Amino acid sequence: MPKKVLSIDDSRMVHMVVSRALKPVGIDVITAVNGQEGYEKALSEKPDFILMDATMPVLSGIEALEKLKGDPATKDIPVMMLSADAGKDNIDKAIQLGAIKFITKPFTAESLIGEIGSYIGLAA
Amino acid sequence: MHFLSEFTQKAVAEVYGTMLGLSVEHVRTDESHGASSTGINGLVSNVGFAGRISGGLYMNHGDKLACDITERLIGMRPASADDAEVADVLGEIANMVTGTMKKHTSALGYNGWLSTPLIMRGEQISLEPKDATVHSYNVFRIPDLDAEIGVWVFAKLQ
User: Fold this and answer.
1) What's the gap in Å between the CA of A81 and the closest CA on chain B?
2) What is the pLDDT of residues B19-74, one digit of tens each?
3) Which residues contact B130 (CB under 8 A, 6 or more apart)?
């Protein structure tokens, strides 16, 4: 069964770029456009991995991370933050809440595959 | 040159190079108040910032360039510059440029927060900040697309 990555970002462009990077290596990508929708999809879709922006409407990435890590149903899903807003406060808070890593935009497809692949067992 | 102009130049080159595979040439910088901030046509994407530096970044792309960049990023040519995908792409690029600048300003102790992007489209747009202490205008050329980008940063420093 293919691995499933949930991309949570308010930019459809990011979803398209992430999908174009991950689908060719056999990863299914599902999407959500804010932290609240992302949390709900994490509950219903049970992804293997979550890639999440920090700055989003409705529920920010940091707030959504707190909900995900506080819920027994989602707390074990690895969450990587992917954001243009890489201030030290954001990074420290995300890591403290349980994010495995905070990577900054801009990013290349190769770097994204490398980062995610190492967590969900993609062959190098 | 003000450090915000220098950081703008670094950020634009990094974002266009990494996300779009495009080299960007810096054409000129103007830090005089009111420099070339009238008669702007096409799309203007804005990201605000707050904290020890408050203000905003504004990027101007012409309609054709906006469509070219969108096609390059998402793999589909938009029907026009009014398409939602174009606004989404330009907003995310402005977001990345501002975020990259923030990495540099944070290293100088100027940390803060960014807004979500806002996109405007029109003709003869004027940007006339009334109380910004720093005005930075940079023009860049993208040789592969035969086009130019204008980037304004208006800011107050504390």
Assistant:
1) 14
2) 999 999 999 999 988 777 888 999 999 999 999 999 999 999 999 999 999 999 88
3) none
